[in-house]
Design brief:
By secondary structure, this protein is an alpha/beta fold. The protein has helices at about 30-45, 65-70, 80-85, 90-95, 110-115, 145-150, 155-165, 170-175, 185-195, 200-215, 220-230, 235-250; strands spanning about 5-10, 15-20, 50-55, 60, 100-105, 105-110, 120-125, 130, 165-170, 180.
Length: about 260
């Protein structure tokens, strides 16, 4: 694998990971998946990194697994080994630091699982989303059947998965699949600005962890998780007051708005 197939850039505590194999629709080889997961692991351990962005070189986000590589696997290879030996979705969901997907174009199957496994999603107006696993005669293994219905509802998830039809960016925003839709040329700047609004505090990771744990349990259990966590957590009243004043001052400035 060429190292240029995944680009890494650090700026202001934000690490941007760019899939860069446009001649193959940014399809992920096994080597690319291994490096991608390794980069996430390294970022998780790097105290200088407080947030990450996952994006790709135009014109597409990613078509997911490189099916041409899978087709060349030995006939004796098992389904799991042949298709999904390395799981980027699981690696993303294990991150305690926020990861934002900046979806620049077609986001298909494994690519959709990558986006869904990020903390939130910003989409270019050119983005399109589809789940084509069933059309390929396979079943998702990076978390799609668990994540997609939680994002868009079970009925829409069923339709997307059994038809393989695309959902345009504006519709993705309407059904709750993405957080923002912006003009294509604004995707990078907008997402970096959004990442820059995330404070470099342990409370960010703690909040994301509570969301992750509370999402799959009852309301009562989720409330109990929050109460238990808060009871064990230290509290600095002076720091709280200072950050409160800073936050109040920040909200006096109206931030830039996305196109949608």
């Amino acid at each position: 694998m060429s190292a240029d197939h995944i680009l890494v850039e650090d700026a202001g505590g934000i690490r941007t990971i760019t899939l860069n194999r446009p001649e193959r629709k940014n399809a992920l080889t096994e080597e690319m998946r291994q490096r991608f997961c390794g980069l996430l692991s390294a970022a998780e351990r790097d105290s200088a990194v407080r947030a990450l962005i996952v994006t790709a070189t135009d014109p597409v986000f990613t078509a997911g697994v490189d099916f041409n590589e899978v087709a060349r696997q030995a006939p004796s290879a098992g389904t799991y080994d042949a298709q999904f030996a390395v799981n980027p979705g699981s690696a993303l969901r294990a991150m305690s630091k926020p990861v934002i997907a900046a979806v620049n174009g077609a986001c298909v199957s494994g690519g959709l699982e990558i986006a869904l496994s990020c903390a939130f999603i910003v989409a270019s107006e050119r983005a399109r989303f589809a789940d084509t696993h069933a059309r390929l005669g396979v079943v998702a293994m990076w978390g799609l059947t668990a994540l997609l219905p939680r994002a868009v509802g079970i009925r829409k998830a069923r339709e997307m998965s059994v038809t393989g039809n695309f959902v345009a960016a504006d519709d993705a925003l309407r059904i709750g699949l993405v957080n923002h839709v912006v003009a294509h040329d604004d995707l990078g700047p907008f997402t970096r600005a959004l990442a820059g609004q995330i404070p470099d505090l342990p409370s960010v990771s703690e909040t994301l962890l509570l969301y992750a744990r509370g999402h799959s349990v009852s309301l009562a259990d989720a409330l109990a998780l929050e109460a238990q966590h808060t009871a064990r957590r230290g509290f600095d009243a002076a720091a709280f007051g200072e950050r409160g004043r800073d936050t109040a001052a920040r909200h006096k400035t109206v931030p830039g708005k996305p196109r949608k």
